[in-house]
Amino acid sequence: MKKIAVIGLGLIGGSLALELKKSTWATIYGIDKNPEHLQKALDMGIIFKKATLDIVKEVDTVIIAVPVNYIPDLTIQVLDLIDEETLVFDVGSTKDVVCEAVKNHPKRKNFVAVHPIAGTEFSGPDAAIYNLFTNKVNIICEQNLSSKNMIARVVDLFENIKMRNVFMDSASLHDKHIAYVSHLSHISSFMLGKTVLEIEKDEESIFDMAGSGFASTVRLAKSNPETWTPIFLQNKEGILKSLNEYIKNLNQFKEILIEESAEDLYEIMQNTNKIKSVLAGIKNQ
Long-range contacts made by residues 41-46, C-beta under 8 angstroms, separation at least 24? Predict the structure, then answer.
């Protein structure tokens, strides 16, 4: 890679730019609709040069890292402009809508649907950090619709920043699974924060009594609504299914508590402790 355009200079786009500066000799061009973000990314050394969308005509790699509601139309615009050898990939956490949008594009083979599963609760260029992706999983969807060369380039790129690539044939299946393992946890965090703020009006009491468990559980409630509102709406079907299951389990727990069944409470928590071995297995893969 000699020239890379990163569109969207928040947490993921900015962190990718930092990693690619470290692992390649490429010139990193930054594009962002927010001029303050663009200037800050330049001042912080996240990018080498500011640019407009026309720069994608000249680069060999385009990374689309904007909120998911903008990704489908923007991806089509980019594919319309690039040459035949340019790699284009997005890093959104929903894949079905963008894959559907580009499926008949003449340059569909240049596009790779990517989801690096990494992040923090922070946003904007200030949130960009080194090593965000280290030892994390990167999902590549619908690889059969991309050229082998483009897939190989994506695989190399993410392996070079120490991610493990996983392939999923179906974008809709990706969205279904990610609704459970990512999107539901964000909803839970937001709603726990909302509940506490509504019940406990004395903010000082919250700070005094909040332990590490509360802090870690509501950490995701600090996430950017501009990012997460379109994610929830795009993955509405999968999220509603996961929410129904979650609400069913909450109601079951509530009924057991009402009945004061210590045995059933213990059994639910003991069975759920199995998640430790599941997560440990994933971490060690």
Answer: 41/9, 41/14, 41/17, 41/125, 41/128, 44/125, 44/126, 44/128, 45/21, 46/9, 46/14, 46/17, 46/18, 46/21, 46/125, 46/128
